[in-house]
């Protein structure tokens, strides 16, 4: 049943991708008004009817496996359903934001109602994906393999969007450790985050060199300006890679496996490599933001209604201009989530080992 539910979620992800493309590109459905969304949402309605039937069967299957005390089957089912579901909910979010924006553009109240309706329907799809993980937790707690805090925290997280996925990873890897079938992280999973960051940092280093040539060596033409323009895209690309589910999930699972195995040395090594690899990227982001603030402040000071710009006025304008960089600061904080995974896990393991 887990495979059937996962397969249905996979089909739903494809439908969501088509709906998102239809709204964003106006193909294969030409969307000139909200009524044109009828065809894709009729398809999704039919899909959801099938999904709810499979979901009910999956919940019954999770109860049956828990009664049979089949922890191995439960953890494998939980892992499959949640990972497939992660892709579905990402595409679901994109498609529904587009749909709500389109409906809301015609009538704001309709947009709010549509958003609430879509949220309820999404939660109905979401709940059955936690059935196998909840069954794992109940069985482990019944056997006194986990503590009350672990049980309570992860049980709560299973009923919340987004955090349910890392919670499932923790429960699955803990179950595998208890069963004695946990595995060491592979080469790809060990080096994925570091590889993504090192590649981006190398390009950021080239960008920083080109910027230095532009200002210090007066290289205002040719490959220098073209290189600066092209490599401006490095931080946004890294942001997307670090926020899409693949790299963060692989990194989190790797960190959990190190934690379960008690491998503090591997966690500290990974945290050090990732932290150092991020430095050039941050340098590029800081340089870009500083330049933006400088240019906007200079433009307002010179061409605004301030006459001869005074240092005090320029300082005030600069402070106000800096507020406009709030999205960039939030983006940097979001990028810290996957980057800090190894460091936070290493600290947690040191606490568990009573080193700190």
Weakly predicted, low-confidence segments:
27-31
Query: What's the number of structural domains?
Result: 2
Specify the overall morphology: globular
The chain-level structural class is mainly alpha
Give the helices and strands as they follow along the chain: HHHHHHHHHHHHHHHH
The amount of beta strand, in percent, is under 5%
- Specify Rg, calculated over alpha carbons: 25 Å
Helix content: over 70%
| Sheet with the most strands, sense and barrel status | none
Terminal Cα span: 44 Å
The beta-strand count equals: 0
What is the helix tally?
A: 16
What integer is the average pLDDT? 88
What this model shows, in words?
Helix 8 (187-216) runs antiparallel to helix 10 (234-243). Helix content is 81%, strand content 0%. The longest helix has 36 residues, at 71-106. The chain has 356 residues and is an all-alpha fold. The chain has two domains: 2-179, no CATH class; 187-352, no CATH class. It contains 16 helices and no strands.
